[in-house]
Write a structure and sequence with these properties.
By secondary structure, this protein is α/β, with parallel strands linked by helices. Helix content is 36%, strand content 23%. It contains eleven helices and 14 strands. The strands form three sheets. Strands 1-4-3-2-5-6 form a six-stranded parallel β-sheet, with helices on both faces. A six-stranded antiparallel β-sheet has the order 9-14-11-12-13-10.
């Protein structure tokens, strides 16, 4: 398993040297993956570890605490996804006031050279780092010539003529264009986590849910047709609410997935909720009966959408789901 570290301070981690790639990696889309895979390939060629450096919170979140930008991916999922790309070590560096005040030159000397022993450093197009965004590819190359490492910048990654970026993916998710967002991500958009106990209001309304906390500003809000992964060996059809639950005076974002025709205890299980289609915006209802009536309509619409999606793009979820989806089509 790859090493995870959080701090700039500390002893030398890789005395034999390393190849480092740096980025926000929010969403870990195809452009990010191209950067990471390039760094891993260079590390293998040199026979040294591949290191991915990211920051938590994201610098933009730190500087906009009152109005943080939406996040595509939580830190735990980012680390897991980077490890799946064969990175040997992940640095999820704490971005705080001290880090914000660190000059790009000091970051290069203290983090890249002293702690990581960087032999090569790779970044994405127009990536900046350090106090007042003073670090870029030109600074890395100049300092590399002085301190003994090589620095490079990969070219922008395009898909069908469109440049891939986290900003563009957020726009597509807000617009409900999950198919296009999935193309730029290289996989369907999903949010994962461990199922936690909620207020269990859904159970009393006939809609028990598996709840995932999302302690950041999400890119999505509303009601969705979804697949839940991690319950069995196939996706399970569901309808999900993602938001603050205004009808019951909720505050923090919560992802609540109601799995169709499911009976069982999912508390503590790690699941992934894949978004297929947006049904409607989140809204506040006058009372719980009105909310329940709308939930039934949402569920029926989600069943129909998922039936079409299953037949077009993936295997059906499980025998019980097959029956319910077929019933929804009749």
């Amino acid at each position: 398993m790859s090493r995870l570290f959080r701090d700039v301070e500390g002893g030398v981690l890789f005395p034999q040297g390393s190849v480092v790639c740096i980025g926000a990696f929010d969403g870990l889309h195809l452009g990010h993956r191209a950067l990471v895979r390039h760094a891993v390939a260079r590390a293998r060629a040199l026979g040294v570890p591949a290191v991915a450096l990211a920051f938590e919170p994201l610098p933009r979140e730190f500087f906009a605490k009152d109005n943080p930008p939406p996040r595509l991916m939580l830190a735990r999922d980012k680390v897991a996804a980077l490890r799946e790309l064969d990175v040997d070590s992940v640095g999820l560096l704490r971005f705080d006031a001290k880090m914000a005040a660190t000059s790009a030159e000091d970051f290069v000397r203290d983090m890249l050279v002293r702690r990581l022993g960087a032999r090569e450093v790779w970044i994405g197009p127009k990536f900046h780092f350090g106090n007042r965004r003073g670090g870029d590819i030109a600074l890395l190359q100049a300092m590399g010539a002085e301190l003994g490492f090589v620095a490079g910048e990969i070219q922008p990654i395009h898909l069908n003529g469109e440049r891939i970026s986290s900003t563009r993916i957020r726009e597509l998710l807000v617009a409900g264009n999950f198919a296009h967002a999935g193309e730029l991500l290289g996989r369907p958009y999903a949010i994962g986590g461990r199922v936690v106990r909620g207020r269990q209001l859904g159970r009393t309304l006939g809609f028990p849910t598996a709840n995932l906390r999302f302690p950041k500003t999400p890119a999505l809000s509303g009601i969705y047709a979804t697949w839940v992964h991690g319950v069995f060996d196939r996706p399970w059809p569901s309808v999900s609410s993602f938001g603050t639950r205004p009808t019951v005076d909720g505050v923090e974002p919560l992802l609540e997935a109601h799995l169709f025709d499911f009976q069982g205890d999912l508390y503590g299980r790690h699941i992934q909720v894949e978004f297929v289609a947006k049904l409607r915006d989140e809204e506040k209802f006058n009372d719980l009966p009105a909310l329940t009536e709308q939930m039934h309509r949402d569920a029926e619409l989600a069943r129909r959408i998922l039936a079409d999606h299953a037949s077009a793009s993936q295997p059906s979820a499980h025998p019980s789901a097959d029956a319910s989806l077929n019933a929804a089509q009749r």
